[in-house]
UniProtKB/TrEMBL annotation:
InterPro entries attached to this UniProt entry: Glu/Gly-bd, Insect_Ionotropic_Sensory_Rcpt, Iontro_rcpt_C
Keyword Isomerase: no
Residue ranges occupied by any Ionotropic glutamate receptor L-glutamate and glycine-binding domain in the UniProt entry: 72-133
Record GO cellular component, one term: plasma membrane
Protein name: Ionotropic glutamate receptor L-glutamate and glycine-binding domain-containing protein
Main localization category: membrane
SMART domains to which the protein is assigned, alphabetical: Lig_chan-Glu_bd
UniProt GO BP: detection of stimulus involved in sensory perception
Cell membrane among keywords: yes
Length: 487
C-alpha cells in the first residue's frame, strides 16, 4: 500500500487472527405457503488485525541502474574509456528526481550485448537478462511491457504510451513533365476529342449540304468545305485561340450555329476546370507516400522492412503464422541482414541507413521523430518521413528484479510525478514534433513557379515547333519544284 503524500511506503508487518462466532437465521421451507424460522446455524469467520508501518528501502542505498541510449528518452554520453560519463533525457530526469526524493545514489551501466531483452537460446539477454541474474537493481529506459518479460521481472507504473512506427523515404513531387495532361483522366480527354470530332463532322456535313443543294445561300467560302478547317474552329475555341466565325446563312445555316454554340458552352466548363486543376497541380505539390500501412509494406517491391534485432516487434512478426505479420517475418528470414544490430540505436547510424531510400525502418515513434529532426537539421531537407499507419502501441515502463523491495517506492514516485505534472513538462522539453511532417500533411503553396513547374508546357511547345518545322521542310521542296515546273 502506498501513499502519495509520503516519501516512504506502507507495508504490512504483522497480523493477529481470531475467530468470531455469530448466528444467522435459516429459513426452512414447509409444505404449503407458510415458512417458519426453524433454527440458527453458527458460522466461524476469521478476522485479521493487520498492522502497517512505514518503510524506506531506498534511503541511503546505491543502485546499479541499467540503461540504453534511446533518444529522446535517454541520451547517454561516454568518456574516453567507454564508460557512461553523463546522461540526459526524460528517463534521466525521472531517475534524478527519484534519487533526490528518496535519498539514494546510483550509477548507470549498459548491457554488454546492447539489447533491451529477449528470450533467445533458452535464456534472457540484454538488460532484462541482467535483472534476471540480479546484476542490476533497476532498468531505466523506455522498456516495452510484455507478458513474457513480466514473468521474470517486475514492471513499474508505465510512464509513456509510445507507438511504434516506420521511417520511409519521403514522397516525391509529381512529375511536372506530365502536368499539362494531369487535370483530366485519360477517359475525359478521350471524350473531349470524340466530342470535337463529332461536332466537326456535323458542321462539315451541314456545310457540304448547303453548298451542294442551296448554293445561292452559301457564302462560307471554300475553306469551310474542308474537314480539318472545321476541326480547327473547335480546337481554337477550347484552346482559347478562336479566330474564325461559323457562317450561318440559309435555313440550314442556323443548325451549324446551334451546334457551335452548344460546343462553346461545353468548352467554357472544360477550360475553367482545366485551368483551375492545372494551377493546383503546378503550385501545390502532391506528395504521395510509397506506402501507408504494413499491408502496403508486405507487398511493396520498392521498400524492405528493417528492424532492431531482438526487439519486441521483431519477435511478434517472426512468431506470426499468418497474415501480414507472417509475410513481414518471411521477408526478414529471407534477408537476415535487415535485422539491425545494436549500433543502430545511434541516431546518426540509423539516419544514414534510412537515407539509402530502400528501407522501411521500424522503431519507437519518439525515436523516429528525433531522427527526422536530425535529418532536417543536417541537410535542411525532408528526405524521409513517417509511415502514416502506426505499427503497434505499447506501454513503456522501467523495471526491477522480480519481487524487488524497491518497486512500491518507485511506483509511488511515478504517481507523484504525474500528479505534479512533471512528466508532461519533461515531454514538452524533450519531444519535438518533426518540422517536415506538418508540411507533408497540408502541402505548401510555392511563392514562385520554377522552370521545373512549367517543364511540361515548354516540352509541348518544343515538340510542336520541331514537328511543324519538319513538316514545313518536308513540304517545301515539293512546293518549290511545283513552282519551277509552272514557270
Amino acid at each position: 500500500m502506498t501513499t502519495p503524500d509520503n516519501t516512504m511506503a506502507w507495508q504490512p508487518t504483522s497480523y493477529r487472527k481470531e475467530s468470531l462466532l455469530f448466528c444467522s437465521p435459516v429459513i426452512q421451507k414447509l409444505e404449503g405457503p407458510r415458512a417458519t424460522w426453524a433454527g440458527y446455524s453458527t458460522m466461524a469467520h476469521d478476522l485479521a488485525e493487520i498492522r502497517f508501518e512505514k518503510v524506506d528501502h531506498l534511503y541511503g542505498k546505491h543502485l546499479i541502474v541499467a540503461t540504453a541510449d534511446l533518444n529522446p528518452y535517454m541520451y547517454v554520453h561516454h568518456d574516453e574509456n567507454g564508460t557512461i560519463d553523463s546522461a540526459d533525457g526524460i528517463v534521466n530526469e525521472m531517475i534524478l528526481w527519484l534519487a533526490q526524493r528518496y535519498h539514494f545514489t546510483f550509477h548507470y551501466v549498459e548491457s554488454s550485448d546492447g539489447y533491451f531483452g529477449a528470450f533467445v537460446n533458452e535464456s534472457w539477454n540484454g538488460m532484462v537478462g541482467m535483472a534476471v541474474r540480479k546484476e542490476i537493481d533497476l532498468i531505466a529506459t523506455q522498456l516495452t511491457t510484455t507478458y513474457a518479460r513480466s514473468k521474470v521481472i517486475d514492471f513499474t507504473t508505465s510512464f509513456s504510451k509510445d507507438p511504434m512506427g516506420a521511417i520511409i523515404p519521403a514522397p516525391k513531387e509529381d512529375d511536372f513533365m506530365a502536368a499539362i495532361v494531369k487535370p483530366f483522366q485519360p477517359g475525359v480527354w478521350a471524350l473531349i476529342m470524340i466530342s470535337m470530332f463529332s461536332a466537326t463532322l456535323v458542321t462539315f456535313t451541314f456545310m457540304k449540304l448547303i453548298h451542294k443543294y442551296m448554293p445561292d445561300y452559301y457564302d462560307g467560302g471554300i475553306s469551310n468545305l474542308h474537314f480539318w478547317e472545321n476541326f480547327m474552329y473547335y480546337f481554337g475555341i477550347i484552346s482559347s485561340q478562336a479566330g474564325r466565325t461559323m457562317p450561318s446563312v440559309g435555313p440550314l445555316g442556323h443548325a451549324t450555329r446551334l451546334v457551335a454554340a452548344t460546343w462553346c458552352l461545353t468548352a467554357v466548363v472544360f477550360i475553367y476546370l482545366y485551368s483551375g486543376c492545372l494551377t493546383s497541380f503546378i503550385t501545390i505539390p502532391k506528395l504521395r507516400p510509397l506506402i501507408e500501412s504494413l499491408d502496403d509494406l508486405a507487398t511493396s517491391v520498392d521498400l524492405e522492412l528493417t528492424i532492431l534485432k531482438n526487439s519486441v516487434f521483431e519477435s511478434m512478426i517472426l512468431e506470426a503464422t499468418s497474415g501480414t505479420y507472417k509475410a513481414l517475418g518471411d521477408s526478414l528470414r529471407n534477408k537476415p541482414q535487415n535485422r539491425l544490430p545494436k549500433d543502430f540505436l545511434e541516431p546518426e547510424i540509423f539516419l544514414k541507413h534510412a537515407l539509402i531510400g530502400r528501407f522501411a525502418m521500424v522503431d519507437q515513434k519518439s525515436f523516429l521523430e528525433y531522427v527526422l529532426n536530425l535529418a532536417f537539421k543536417t541537410s535542411g531537407k525532408c528526405d524521409i518521413t513517417l509511415m502514416k499507419q502506426e505499427v503497434v502501441t505499447s506501454l513503456d515502463s522501467m523495471a526491477v528484479q522480480k519481487n524487488s523491495i524497491y518497486l512500491a517506492q518507485i511506483d509511488q514516485g511515478f504517481q507523484t510525478m504525474a500528479a505534479l505534472g512533471l512528466q508532461n513538462y519533461w515531454e514538452k522539453r524533450f519531444l519535438k514534433i518533426p518540422k517536415c511532417e506538418e508540411n507533408l500533411e497540408k502541402g505548401v503553396a510555392k511563392p514562385r513557379l520554377t522552370l521545373a513547374n512549367l517543364s511540361g508546357a515548354f516540352l509541348f511547345l518544343l515538340v510542336g515547333i520541331v514537328f511543324f518545322s519538319w513538316l514545313y521542310f518536308v513540304k517545301f521542296p515539293f512546293k518549290r519544284e511545283d513552282q519551277m515546273v509552272r514557270f
